[in-house]
Input
Amino acid sequence: MIVEILQQMLNGLAIGSVYTLIALGLTVVFGILGIAHFAHGSVAMSGGYLTFVFTERLGMSFFPAMAMAMLAGAVVGLLIERLAYRPVRDAPHINAFIIALGLTMMIEGINLLVFGADQVVIQTPYRGVFDVGGIAVAELRLQVIMTTVVLIGVIAYLISRTKTGKSIRAVAQNRPAAVLMGVNVNQVSAVVFSVSSALGAAAGALVGALLAIAPGVGEGLAVKGFAVLILGGLGSIPGAIVGGLVLGVSESLAAGFISSAYKDVIAFLVMIFVLLFRPEGLLGKRS
Amino acid sequence: MRPSLQSFGIAGLVVAALCLPWVVTVPYFLQLIILALIWVVLAQGQNLIQGFTGYVSIAQAGFMGVGAYCSTLLTVKLGWSVWLTLGIAPLFTAFFAVLVGYPSLRVKGHYFAIVTLAYNMVIYIILFTYAALTGGEAGISSVPRPADISIGGVVLSFSGRIGYYYLVLAAAGLATLICALILHSRVGRILVAIRQNETLTEAIGVSAWRYKLFAFVVSASLAGLAGALYAHFIGFLNPDPFGVDQSLNAILAVILGGSGTLMGPVVGAFAVVFLPEYLRVAETYRLVMYGLILVVATIFMPRGLVPLAAQLGQRLVAAFRKTNG
Output
């Protein structure tokens, strides 16, 4: 029983770290620009599909392919910011959200046209399984968790230690003041979107290796990403990490012990429960 | 001058709508018009929460599913009269919306939208998975039409398209009327105030959450009615029409027609039903085109078709007066 619980928790940590990556991309865009970038999940799926194409067709190994997909994701992020979100920056927030919904439909449609409707699994060489005290530890899951840790480290460094990071934080705190101090807001939002979309593409590649990618998966991922933000507290990076792991583990436990068909239902119930009793999130500050 | 012009227009529209089945004799078009009228009910509900109150709900298709299955299961499994269940379905959906609306209205703006989206996904998953009750993907066939009514020897039949047309026309009229009454009441003004500045509205002493919940529940029950009308019209029910993309279509209908206006959802509903039929050549590009329309419309005409047309009309009238006077 204990072994079984630990096993499910470990599986949950792997999928939870993917949720964390998705949520991280969402939280930087939301916390800094105030945009609920719902198309993020679909961008992530594009990244997953690209990684698949790079590994299968071009014979690249997994991590270089993922890096290429992240680069492509960054370009997509730049385009989205410039063409879709910037024109409505001064309009009511609801407009940006509706644009996000439109983008979701477009990107899902493009994914369907370019990559087809079949389910896709990215093959990786990490097929080993270690036995640690009766718990099967899959090498792939460890790789996923490690990748997430590295990417979080890079983002944390970018935001807290670099000059660009300083201007990003300035815009997040007070946009007009930042503009008056000579911060180029356009540049900041371009950087934020490309970083966020690159993170999304990485998450898509990891989902493709860990589970599978198929049409519609992206929307589910975006919802889960926002569920993580609600769980962890809005705009908080530690919140995104804790929330992602909590969601992944509870989902995995639910799938293992209750019903795998209803695991998404249970994930959303957790979110609704948190809303009822701690609307500011697990790590959010009570206002 | 203006009110009389307006009432003249409304009267003309009503007469045209009543005569329509004798003008449009092609069954295919009548079929589409009936679907569009069902969509009017749905879009009016969406407009109430999205256009008036300023909260985007992405659960409209899910609520439609709740109403559709409620009405269908009561008639098919328990043999209740369709007329009765057409009344029960919106009430049941409203009850359901109270339960789910209360926690979700604790978050604002985008997060409300995401939570409602999660509801839609949960409803969809349950409709798919709980096959013992819902029939799963295989669905429920032979959902009955409403029984004939005879008033003083005149038999009104609803088994054909023409009879059903009048039923959904009445429902669309009712939904529009409900929204008009709400908009012109104190409640409607508070809803608009919440959209414009929720903090200020609360500071004046209005407990905003009650009004938001009211708008959410009325919008859900209209969706439930639309779902029941849909199920009894098509005669076959499975979870497919109640996915998230259909909720996005409802949002598209409101944006395209003109959010926060009474006629906007009507125009938008017809647009989202008829556009795919004419874009059928581009079936594979449909999703991309829909998304593109939504993005371009939000950037370049955020107020929608109806206000745009009204503005053009006013300019024309003004120009006409200038040249004649």
Notes: Chain A has eleven helices and two strands.
